[in-house]
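Form 7-S
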Amino acid sequence: MRNVERVTSVKSELLDIFMSMNVDEHTQRQRACAKRSLRARRGIEQHREFQKLWQEIADLPEHDDEPIENELH
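Output:
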């Protein structure tokens, strides 16, 4: 009877270890997925920021060689 209890105990410990490993792997996958999502979101934000900047630059008047006079002088 004692051997059966010991085997059952070892089986239970192995199952706990296995389940713990699965939880750790799942957590790591979730973190990696979250990091990828954040990188993608930031990439999209940067793309939009660059588009907006290019549009603002395109809307600026063409630069001519005449200096702009300061109204204070």
